[in-house]
Amino acid sequence: MRQAFAGIALRKVFSAKSAIAAFLAITMCVAAVGSASANAKYAAIVVDANTGKTLFSANSESRRFPASLTKMMTLYLTFEALSRGKINKDTRVPFSAQASAQPPTKIGVKAGGSVTVETAIYALVTKSANDAATALAELLGGSQDNFARIMTAKARSLGMNSTVFRNANGLPNSAQFTTARDMAMLGIALKEHYPQYYGYFSTRSFTYGRQRMPNHNRLLGRIKGVDGIKTGYTNASGFNLVSSVSDGNRRIVAVVMGGASGAARDNHMADLIKKYLPQASNGGKGGPLIASATTSPIGAIAKVLLPKHDAPTPDTRPGADIVVAADEAPAVVKRKVARTPETVAAPVMQAYADPAPRPQAEVEEVAEQRTAAVDQAVAIQQEVDPAHTASIGPSGWAIQVASSPSREEAQAFLSKASQQAPKLLSDAAAFTVQFEKGGVTYHRARFGGFGTKTAAWDACAALKKKKIACYAIQNN
């Protein structure tokens, strides 16, 4: 700023109008930075993907909710299974009742139906489909809970020591958290470890049946060099985005979390790319690894407890491969360590089992204990990745269609209402809100995104004509 004003002072040829314009531009820039720093959800990082050097960082090691960025790990494990021959692109992904009942956004496969693995991948990278993510989790892990344990264990092996996953799609869960730095590591790992599948992230749109699914990442095609990766949103997380950008030999991965709106998040990301991509190295890789299969329990604990600095980059592919033999129970596993992925013959439904050995579980427990109190104090609400979310927030209106002590049942109500009134609720975002009464935890099933009280009332009146009970409520 001093140099800018010095330049103005030295250039006598500057007109008063030019000087005022320059001052206003600087003032607006300072205001924008101040606004971001005042946002308690905000975090960001820019990493040179060749060297691992941190080019920019703001709250990058502070705990945040990943929202649909969670699906990056779901896809990472899907790519891993593909590369090792455990599944192929045409393998059918069955949809259980639980998968089908996931709230929107979704592709709407009914229980008992199925899609191919490739269709599920497209559904995740474009529409951020929650039902497809759950179906993939059940295919690869046997259950979503078990798959979440696999996700967390894989995160540790990649050096993501401040991340815990509880589901495969990023739907609200107060025990699921990450950091901007960890998401940058995962973004780098996806491209470095599985370049043969990374092109899925640049898909601009995908058609399933009669549905055309545009990619939620609006920087694709807008910013030169952007080739992915993933957006995310819940009310608790704010608007999240991980971007991979290339310019010749230069490559960065940037993360913005907690944006106040999709547009604000995208504009901030665009500014970070414009400023820091030219500062990235113009040579080959030279950074340390993020994917190490030989980290000792003591070393892993140290990584969790000690502060991290530059985000390391992957030099080799992930090394830990957990395989369940065909005739073994899920609890019995064989560990195979390799420096590069290998094709392993194993039944698709038993491709994975709970991978966490006891020392690793102890590491995770140490990490969770550090901020368990914070987790318990956080109330998460709002569905993930709504297609239109400008009016969703504390000042918006929602309609409630059910309340149940079962979160799955509340989600089922949302799914049923979406199917009964698809046009009416096409722009609404489904979510659940947890509350307690008489010592019992209940889950309110709501649709948000109504900008006015009248809009919510009118929607409710239309739903009642379809025999769907509801009432309008301000979404505070």
From TrEMBL:
Signal peptide, first to last residue: 1-21
All copies of domain SPOR, residue ranges: 391-476
Gene3D superfamilies: DD-peptidase/beta-lactamase superfamily (3.40.710.10), Sporulation related repeat (3.30.70.1070)
Active site: residue positions: S68, K71, S128
Keywords tagged on the record: Carboxypeptidase, Cell shape, Cell wall biogenesis/degradation, Hydrolase, Peptidoglycan synthesis, Protease, Signal
Organism: Mesorhizobium zhangyense
Binding site for substrate: K230
Protein known as: D-alanyl-D-alanine carboxypeptidase
PROSITE patterns registered for this protein in UniProt: SPOR
GO biological process: cell wall organization; peptidoglycan biosynthetic process; proteolysis; regulation of cell shape
Domain of life: Bacteria
Family: Belongs to the peptidase S11 family.
Gene Ontology MF terms: peptidoglycan binding; serine-type D-Ala-D-Ala carboxypeptidase activity
Pfam families from the UniProt entry: Peptidase_S11, SPOR
